[in-house]
Amino acid sequence: MADNNAAVVEISQKASSFRSSIVLQAENKYIDVKSILGLFTTLVNSHAYELHVHGPDAEEAKKTMVEVFQKHGLNINIVE
């Protein structure tokens, strides 16, 4: 079980270092990953998440976000 506070803060900080749009899809909700508040209300370990990344540094952003989600034990799929 990940420490959600640490996960939320790290995910948001990492996402904020990219210019790309990074949006987390959890069921029918879409959350801007750069929004700590949005993540706090959405991030639950039992879910599988989809990540939509678009922008000038999208490839690097995808790689980094997968690493940080996996580090915290969160299941993430990148939507191409």
UniProtKB/TrEMBL annotation:
<feature type="domain" description="HPr">
    <location>
        <begin position="10"/>
        <end position="70"/>
    </location>
</feature>
<dbReference type="InterPro" id="IPR000032">
    <property type="entry name" value="HPr-like"/>
</dbReference>
<protein>
    <submittedName>
        <fullName>HPr family phosphocarrier protein</fullName>
    </submittedName>
</protein>
<dbReference type="InterPro" id="IPR035895">
    <property type="entry name" value="HPr-like_sf"/>
</dbReference>
<dbReference type="Pfam" id="PF00381">
    <property type="entry name" value="PTS-HPr"/>
</dbReference>
